[in-house]
């Protein structure tokens, strides 16, 4: 049996429920997870892990007031994964792309950002700039 996942939809997020579900389902597909359940409350998702029904909780966006959820899920023997990166990660990716566009090499960008060259290449590839 593969990795079973619950998709947690954050009610009140700026993204619609449909968008969040689509992001999470695509994330599950990329990782080979089997999404078995859709929940709207973090406590319901946590209980699914505690009861052994799922191994992973996938959310598109984690509510700001629930950053303790990853710790609680880990304590229950599961894992919390976010399908969409944080705003900070997104902005760092934009900076990496701009540095590349301004002529910096992957090695130079890695040195400036304290990331390895593989991470820099993956970010550039995601942004349509294969290096």
Work out the count of structural domains: 2
Report Rg: 17 Å
N-end to C-end Cα span:
38 Å
The fourth-level CATH homologous superfamily of the largest domain is: Resolvase, N-terminal catalytic domain
Report low-confidence residues grouped into runs of 5 or more: none
Find the CATH topology of the largest domain.
Answer: Rossmann fold
Count of helical regions: 6
Using the coordinates above, name the CATH class of the largest domain. Answer: Alpha Beta
Report strand order across the widest sheet.
Answer: 2-1-3-4
What is the percentage of strand-forming residues? 5-15%
Helix amount, in percent? 40-55%
Mean pLDDT equals 89
Q: Count of DSSP E strands?
A: 4
Shape: elongated
User: SSE order in H/E notation?
Assistant: EHEHEHEHHH
The CATH architecture category of the largest domain equals: 3-Layer(aba) Sandwich
Q: Helix/strand-derived class?
A: alpha/beta
Largest sheet at a glance? Answer: 4 strands, parallel
Q: Quick gist of this model?
A:
The chain is built from six helices and four strands; from the N terminus they run βαβαβαβααα. With 131 residues, it is α/β, with parallel strands linked by helices.
Q: How are the elements arranged and paired?
A:
Elements: E1 4-8, H1 17-31, E2 34-39, H2 42-50, E3 56-59, H3 69-75, E4 79-82, H4 87-101, H5 106-113, H6 117-126
Parallel strand pairs: 1-2, 1-3, 3-4
């Amino acid at each position: 049996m593969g990795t079973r996942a619950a998709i947690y939809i954050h009610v009140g997020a700026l993204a619609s429920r449909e968008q969040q579900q689509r992001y999470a389902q695509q994330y599950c597909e990329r990782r080979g997870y089997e999404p078995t359940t859709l929940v709207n409350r973090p406590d319901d998702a946590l209980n699914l892990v505690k009861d052994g029904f799922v191994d992973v909780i996938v959310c598109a966006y984690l509510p700001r007031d629930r950053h303790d959820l990853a710790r609680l899920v880990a304590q229950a023997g599961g894992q919390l994964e976010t399908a969409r990166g944080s705003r900070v990660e997104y902005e760092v990716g934009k900076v990496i792309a701009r540095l590349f566009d301004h002529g910096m090499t992957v090695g130079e960008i890695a040195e400036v950002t304290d990331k390895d060259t593989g991470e820099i290449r993956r970010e550039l590839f995601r942004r349509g700039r294969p290096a």
